[in-house]
Every structure is written in C-alpha cells, then in structure tokens.
Design goal:
It contains 15 helices and 20 strands. It is α+β, with helices and mostly antiparallel strands. The chain has three domains: about 100 residues, 3-Layer(aba) Sandwich (Rossmann fold); about 70 residues, ATP-grasp fold, A domain (Dna Ligase, domain 1, 2-Layer Sandwich), CATH 3.30.1490; about 250 residues, D-amino Acid Aminotransferase, Chain A, domain 1 (2-Layer Sandwich), CATH 3.30.470.20. It is globular.
Length: about 475
C-alpha cells in the first residue's frame, strides 16, 4: 500500500473538475495544470493549487516533462490523466514511476501492449478470445499495399484501415474496393502520423452495421477482477460516440458471456485499475468479437456510475494505492436504464461544426430525480476555439427504457442555453425517432436516419425572453423600451 495525499490532474475541462470533486471527497489535496488559454477556466476554481505549464494550446497538456515538473512543484505524489491527452500514453506512466509518483491507471507495460492493436490481438488470441480477422502492421510503400490487397482478396471488401496507435475514432477508414485502398492507405498513414506520431496501419475485416458494446472492468494487483456491466455506444458520428446507454439490451446469456470474456481479456493482459473492454456485436446473431481495450477512464463512465452507485474514480485511486477490490458482487445489480448525452457547442446540421468563440448568454440547467450533470458551462462562458466543444454531459436514469427516454426528453427541454448552437435539438429528434424508441440502433444509425437532422431551428419563446433579460442586465436599459 502506498497512501496518496495529493493528486495532480493532468487534464482540463469537465473531466478535470470531475476528478477534483472525488479527490476532495476522499480528503486529499488537488493540483490542476493549465495552459494560458485556460487561465480563467472554470475547473481551476475548485483545485487547491493551479500551475501554469505553458502558452499552449494543447501542446503543453501533451508534454510529459512539464506534467512531471508540475507534480513535483505542487508536491503531488500521484497523477490522474483523465481521458484524452496523455491518458493512454505509456511514457507518462513510466515517467511517473521514474519520478516516484503514483500513476492512477494501469502499469506502463499494460498500456503499451494494449495500445498496440496488433499486440493486443495477439494477447487475446492466446486467451482464445474471439476477434475480427485482421493483419499485423502493414509494411511501408508498395509492399504494404500488396499485403493489404492480399488480405482483401481473402476476406472480401469492405475492410477497415486502422491506425496502430489509434483511439477516439481517429485513423479509421472504411474501404470498399482496390482503387480506394490504393488512394486511402497513404492518407491514412499521414493522418495517423499527425494524430499519434505513429504512421503504422493495420487492417481489419469490416463488420457491417454492428453494435458497439463495452464492458467496464476493475482489477486490483492481487488478481481480483470484476465487471460493472455493459454500455451500448453504437450511436456515433465518424466513429466517435455521441450517446451511451447502460446496460446494453442483449439476452442475459450473451451479456454474461461478454462479462466473462472481458474479465478473461483483462486477466490475460495483466490488467490493474479501471479499464474498458470493447466489442463489436452482430445485431442479427448476437455473435461478438473483441475490438480493443481502453486503458483509461471513459467519457461515458457516468452511465455506469448512476446505475451501480460506484464512483469509478474513487476506485481508481484506491487501486493505485495498492488496495484490494472489496465491492460485493451483489452491488453490481444494474437497476433500470441510463443514458448519457454529450451536450456540445456544435451545429449538427453543419457537420457538427464547433461554435468556438461564441458566448453563453443565458444558462439554465435541468434538475429532478435521477438526473446528473457533469460540465463546465455557466452564464458568460466563452466557447473555446482551441479545445473540445463539450459544455456538459447529461446523464439520466429510469426504471424502464420508456421512462428513461421520457426523462431524457424532459431534461433536454428544461435546458436553456442561449448563444451558441448546441446538440440539444439533435438529441430531442433522436428521442422521438421510432427505431431509437424501440431500442433498434447500430453504428449505422445516423446514416440510416438522416431525417433526424431536419429538426426545427425556431428559437423558443423562453430563449428569446432570456436573451432580452440578459441584454437588459448587461446594458442596464431595455433596448426596446423606446
């Protein structure tokens, strides 16, 4: 056991605030890091200490040396990486070890092995875990193209090009034929190099319109591993998740098989701490295949927490200290259904274009039973142009699928965000769509339901009134009184 006293949060925005809250609940001290564009960021107000690490944007949050320096300057004996940025970088975990700082996450070797998609597949193969047919890292140049063509000839099109170091939906391209393969492979390498500083590409057989299901796991250093149920993350744009549901609507026997496969995968990899094992599922047969392991906290962890009552970040800290898993199995009884939506300052009708630079003139959030908000937005908040456009994550829970949808609709309608366009009307349109209400959706959901984007743009009367009130408050006069 190694008692943690002060945690440096190596992240920003919503997730930094989320981590800080749990750390403070545990009676520990907190330190935050920030770049100059984040100098007035909301999350900084809640940390015990805030350390400027550079001019940014983004590059300093990705600088391991600066993160370690900040932890040492703050006297922090642990670092939590959140999600994104350095959260799945084994070099940060190694640097923490070298500096005598506890990394709140898996060991460096586990992150490195599972971050390499080809190595991860080999690990799962040893455990006899089903996975989608694929290649190793393709050779450079024409030899790599020949390898790709040979795989396509054997498995048939479509196939998926994937970045070896990929994540978050980046570096993924669906290929329908030889001509497209020849054109897209060099571009995929360039995109992978830009995003991950690693241009290696591999290929997987494309499973058409699958469901994307993941299992949350917790593992201690003594061989104890448990699952916290499933999440359905099938509704996505460009391979990035938009809306997450827990638990997945699958037959009990399939869910149990998936739970046990996830535990087996974690055991084979030597996993410690919190992680997520992801699968693709055939919606017709419910056959499933291993896809990857995310060696970090997921954005959508809130839907699991609201169902189980378990604070996953608290568990991460206890496991990083060397503690044993002591959650009784009977606690993992998922009552009802939960949905999380990411309320972003984006225009869904314009290819989800971010609304960077705009201000939130009026902000009013929903409340009521079984509603949770994780966000950083407030009246006067300026949408960043340099960072993610996430305003707030809304998570709701009900005792049935129908009740959960109705509660989500009510909460979305109770939101009042005047200023930027947001994804709220887009989610309201999904709530009214027949297939969604019937629980029928796959990763092709948005492509098969383009009518969702035809939601009305009319501003609600309450929003018009709130804008007027905000203007009167700002100018000290009623501009329409003369």
């Amino acid at each position: 056991m190694k008692k943690i006293n002060k945690v440096l949060v190596a992240n920003r925005g919503e997730i930094a605030l989320r981590i800080i809250r749990t750390v403070k609940e545990m009676g520990l001290s907190t330190a935050a890091v920030y770049e100059k564009p984040d100098s007035e960021a909301y999350f900084l107000r809640f940390a015990d200490q805030a350390i400027l690490i550079g001019d940014g944007p983004r590059k300093d949050y990705l600088n391991i040396d600066k993160i370690i320096w900040a932890a040492q300057k703050a006297g922090a004996d642990a670092i939590h990486p959140g999600y994104g940025f350095l959260s799945e970088n084994p070099d940060l975990a190694t640097a923490c070890e070298d500096a005598g700082i506890t990394f709140i996450g898996p060991p460096p070797k586990v992150i490195r092995d599972l971050g390499n998609k080809v190595v991860a597949r080999d690990i799962m193969k040893k455990a006899a875990i089903p996975f989608i047919p694929g290649t190793g890292a393709l050779a450079d140049g024409e030899e790599g193209i020949r390898e790709a063509l040979a795989f396509a000839a054997q498995q048939g099109y479509p196939i998926m090009l994937k970045a070896l170091a990929g994540g978050g939906g980046r570096g993924i391209r669906k290929i329908a034929g030889e001509e497209e393969l020849r054109a897209q492979l060099p571009q995929a390498r360039f995109e992978a190099r830009s995003a991950f500083n690693d241009d290696r590409i591999y290929i997987e057989k494309c499973v058409e319109s699958p469901r994307h299901i993941e299992v949350q796991i917790l593992a201690d250093a003594y061989g104890h591993i448990m699952h916290l149920g499933t999440r359905d993350c099938s509704i996505q744009r460009r391979h990035q998740k938009l809306l997450e549901i827990a638990p997945a609507d699958l037959p009990p026997s399939v869910l149990e098989a998936m739970h046990q496969t996830a535990i087996q995968a974690a055991r084979q990899a030597g996993y410690v701490n919190a992680g997520t094992v992801e699968f693709l599922v055939d919606p017709q047969t419910n056959q499933f295949w291993f896809m990857e392991v995310n060696t970090r906290l997921q954005v959508e962890h809130t839907v699991t927490e609201i169902l189980t009552g378990i604070d996953i970040i608290r568990q991460q800290i206890l496991l990083a200290e060397g503690g044993r898993l002591e959650i009784p199995e009977e606690r993992i009884y998922l009552v009802g259904k939960a949905i999380q939506v990411r309320v972003n300052a984006e225009d869904p009708k314009n290819n989800f274009m971010p609304e960077g630079g705009k201000r939130v003139d009026v902000y009013q959030s929903p409340g009521g039973p079984e509603i949770r908000l994780d966000g950083i937005v407030y009246q006067g908040y300026k949408i960043p142009t340099d960072y993610d456009s996430l305003l707030v994550k809304l998570t709701v829970r009900g005792y049935s699928w129908e009740q959960t949808i109705q509660r989500l609709k009510r909460a979305l309608k109770d939101f009042l965000i005047v200023g930027p366009k947001t994804t709220i009307p887009f989610y309201l349109a999904i709530c009214d769509e027949k297939d969604f209400r019937n629980g029928q959706f796959t990763t092709s959901y948005l492509d098969l339901h383009p009518e969702i984007f035809n939601y009305p743009d009319a501003e609600r009367e309450i929003a018009k009134l709130s804008r007027l009130i905000a203007e009167i408050h700002s100018r000290k006069i009623n501009p329409y009184a003369y």
